[in-house]
Amino acid sequence: MEPDDPDPLSPLIACPGCDALYRVVDVPDNARARCNRCGAVLITPRPGAFARITALSLAAVVLMVAAVFFPFLALDAAGLHNFASVFDAVRAFSSGLMLPLSVAVAGLIVLIPLARLAAILYTLAPMALGRAPLVHARAAFRLAEALKPWSMAEVFIVGVAVALIKVSGLATVSLGPAFWAFVGLVLVTVLQDNFMCRYSIWKSLENRAP
Amino acid sequence: MEIAGKPGPLTARAAGLVACRRCGRVHPGGAQICQRCGGPISSREIKSLQRVWAWLFAGMILYIPANIYPMLLTSTLVSKRESTIIGGVIDLAHHGSYGVALIVFVASVMIPIGKFIAISYLALSVQWPIRQHSHLRHRLYEVTDFIGRWSMIDVFVVAILSSLVQLDTVATINPGIAAVSFALSVAFTMLSAQSFDSRTIWDSDRPAE
């Protein structure tokens, strides 16, 4: 919306879902601009979004570290006791058939979410502090967007619930602190997503580029 | 509701422009890199359908061993047993956990098979353009794209059980080969859904150029 923008195409936006073309209007904070045809959300600005997303990402990193290293579930059966943290589980089964499975699980619930958080922090933290974005910030945010469907912490929580019920006939299971860290992580991620307006982020990256 | 053949709004393509699906920036025709976000762009993703079909077939083929072979190998002091995806659902129902049995059944059977059908239908409807139900088809695509990751529940259940239940002779649970092929099947169908360019659903709204 800059008046002296040299590119006449800059004030236009195309719907990612159906390619419909619109002229960008000023959307008030907390409102949503949707595509008339397919209903995709185009612009949804939130006040102070960058600072909030940065803070939530930092919280998520802390929770993730707790979720990985603290005991996750403890199990008692016939006088035997076993507890596992996510880190133990991944490390203990690095052989045989468990290897591809533990690589996949570690990737989907720990490595990909962490990579995504790091990419979001790299993109938004400087702008939240009022500085110009870092070099490669655009590539970092593209990566964060590409990783989004593969970051499966919330699916994992449902998996934990099902596993608890399956094993309940065999042994007594109790939840460790890491489980609650994981639940917190899911809530933080949902909040973070809620503040994320892709259009505003890309626009700021463009406008504030050094 | 929409009337077949009714012209839709002006699209970037009809205006001779190329849009970026990541950031919404519009470029003159022929542009290949987005100025705003720096990613590759195209008016319609060329070969999108080829990739959709390739990933979909890979996912469908892997879904067969995922159902035939055991997902979990449970051995206790007295018994040794193997259970498949469906076997696990039946076990849960026998224990009276109908709700959880339903969750696993939906995630491991209904969602994957529903996705195979939905993606095939969407791809065919673009290949042999039908002009109706664009809204419904778009909705179907959104649901398919969103719901795919939830199929991973059973893979996580297997991973958690087999890392937790390792009590030497009393009870051990180990993953079966089906866990790996099911995980790959889910990943491939997710890639298939992501390869689909939803803008092509709407192209028959207005005669192409």
TrEMBL record, chain A:
Q: Which domain of life is it from?
A: Bacteria
Q: What is the lineage of its organism?
A: Bacteria, Pseudomonadati, Pseudomonadota, Alphaproteobacteria, Rhodobacterales
Reply yes or no: does the keyword Transmembrane helix apply.
yes
Name listed for the protein in its UniProt record: Paraquat-inducible protein A
Q: Name one Pfam family in it.
A: PqiA
Q: Does the keyword Metal-binding apply?
A: no
Keywords of this protein's UniProt record, alphabetized?
A: Membrane, Transmembrane, Transmembrane helix
Organism name: Actibacterium naphthalenivorans
Where are its TM segments located?
53-75, 95-125, 146-165, 171-191
